[in-house]
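Can anyone check this?
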Amino acid sequence: MLFDTHCHLLDRAFDGNRAAVIQAIEASEIKYVTEIGLDYESSKAVLDFAEKHDFAFAAIGWFPDETER
C-alpha cells in the first residue's frame, strides 16, 4: 500500500487532465493521498475534494505571508 503524503491535485497544472490523474491514482497501488491547502481558498477546496474522494485526506494551512488575508 502506498500513501502519497503531499500532493497538489487541485493545482492549475492539472486543469487539463485532473480526471485522468484521479483515475490513474484509483487504478494504482496508491491507497491514499493528502491534498494540501496553502491559503483560505485552497484549504476550502481541499476539504471539498477530500469529501468527494474516499482516497483523499485534506491538510489545511496558510503560508505565513497569507495570514493577513
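Reply from J.R.: I decoded it. The two ends are 39 Å apart (CA to CA).
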